Amino acid sequence: MMRSSVLILVMLTLTLGGAEAQHARTRLDRDLEAYVMGACLAQSGDAAIKKQGESVAGAVVQRSRGDIQSFAALDKVVRDELARTGVGVAHLDGATPTDIELPVLTCDEMRDRPVVQRAMGLARAKLRGEYGVAR
Q1: pLDDT tens-digit map of 18-54
Q2: 3-state secondary structure of 1
Q3: Fewer CB atoms < 10 Å away: N or C end of the chain?
């Protein structure tokens, strides 16, 4: 369980970038991206990853500004897209070949899917004023 938490923390750090990359994006952008990651991870069958996802999404909503319905709409899009595409799988060779699901990679890439990008754009437009982001 600890390994899953550490892996998620590392992936979130890589996903959200270092300090320089964070300054290039607004807090609204970071919140939307983090929420997508959390909402996606919350759908995991692994209890530890699911809890991390729920916690990330919840933390973003708690610190967010404006109408939280924009985040709820994003959640639905993420769920629908995950149901449509499924979770990536790695095929591990060896004495006993196995497959392992890759929810962290899948959820990291979720924000780049066109339908999710459109939903993030709609949420960004609705929340822009509350976050003090210029057009």
Answers
A1: 544 445 789 999 999 999 999 999 999 999 999 999 9
A2: coil
A3: C
What per-residue confidence (pLDDT) applies to 97? 82
Residue 110: give the domain boundaries.
2-131
> Looking at residue 94, what DSSP letter applies?
S
- Say how many domains are in the chain: 1
Q: Residue type for 47, please?
A: A
Q: pTM of the prediction?
A: 0.80
Q: Tell me the C-alpha distance between 102 and 85, whole Å.
A: 13
Phi, psi of 94 (to 5 degrees): 155, -170
Instruction: Give the tokens for residue 49.
Output: 């990853």
Q: What is the pLDDT of residues 85-123, one digit of tens each?
A: 999 999 998 888 899 999 999 999 999 999 999 999 999
